[in-house]
Design goal:
- The structure is a homodimer.
- By secondary structure, the first copy, chain A, is mostly beta strands.
- In chain A, about 10% of the residues lie in helices and about 30% in strands.
- Chain A is built from 3 helices and 10 strands, in the order βββαβββββββαα.
- Chain A has a 6-stranded antiparallel beta barrel.
- In chain A, a hairpin with an 8-residue loop joins strand 6 and strand 7.
- The longest helix of chain A is centred in the N-terminal third of the chain and has 7 residues.
- The radius of gyration of chain A is 17 Å and the shape is globular.
- The interface between A and B is large, with 80 and 79 residues.
């Protein structure tokens, strides 16, 4: 198996960012089970985050590879799904990063940035419809053709925490 | 890289289950970035699901490998986190499965079962404390020593859907 390593060029690090050496071997492997089709062909076009995407109301399409299609019946009964997808262009070695519009470097696990040791992104999406192997959803913010890893049903009983608190530095950034 | 393939023994399939051939190659690879330490040493001991775990109030420990520890400062400002972890004992080839206490086979993507093409589990956990590379959390339901893949901050603005609907068959099962 060939594994492309995402860019680790020191020169691409912004002030305040910290990189670490990556382990010499991987521990487990993934199948791409489909693709997420969106109208966005470059990062500049993508919505700023999942919330902006949801508020835009733009409907995107999840195309599940036909070999997994038998796993889909039943999802249409859920109003919301969790999508996991693979940010294949993200570097994996930054432990402190300086996102755009952030004055200071922020540790990776306090951010939802795609840059992380395992660049798995997560979006809670509203399901608008299912036709064969295609789901229409609202709420993803990724580039067109992003690889899909998983589809899970969303349960408010375990997944919804309306009063979850976030730190001031993040609240002011989002606002 | 050696990849252990999870069991695909036809004889272990329950009535109503459907398996599919797995792709011949993987598409991407993962690092285990730590371990989740829980009191549960066998599946029989594990809480039935994340909700039961949260209601039990049992505090578990997330141990992040020291090489990633610089990514942690700042997570203590969040009341809740999303953990992604790897269900390394789960088979990956069932598209219809018959969970315990379910009368009929159910398609995989309508379930939160660990059995799926990419056995990534997700839990929304309450963060009780951080000490060095160890997080104390409430809300995981996995076996002791489960490999950790990611830690993300939880944002109610994008992750909380209090009125999300689920189908009757699932509601009656959970109840």
């Amino acid at each position: 198996m060939t594994v492309k390593s995402a860019g680790t060029d020191e020169s691409l690090i912004r002030p305040g960012e910290v990189r670490v050496p990556l382990p010499s071997a991987f521990d487990a492997s993934l199948y791409y089970i489909g693709r997420i089709r969106t109208p966005w062909k470059s990062r500049a076009e993508c919505p700023r985050n999942a919330r902006a995407s949801r508020e835009s109301g733009v409907v995107c399409t999840v195309e599940v590879d036909p070999c997994w299609q038998q796993g889909l019946p039943g999802v249409e009964g859920f109003s919301h799904l969790i999508l996991l997808y693979w940010m294949d262009r993200a570097r994996r070695d930054l432990m402190v990063q300086t996102p755009k519009n952030q004055p200071a470097g922020r540790p990776t696990f306090a951010l939802r940035s795609p840059v992380r040791p395992n660049p798995i992104a997560l979006a809670v999406v509203e399901l608008r419809g299912v036709e064969g192997n295609r789901l229409s959803v609202v709420g993803v913010d990724c580039l067109d053709n992003t690889p899909l890893l998983d589809i899970k049903p969303y349960f408010s009983s375990t997944d919804s925490i309306p009063d979850a608190r976030i730190p001031d530095w993040h609240a002011s950034r989002k606002g």
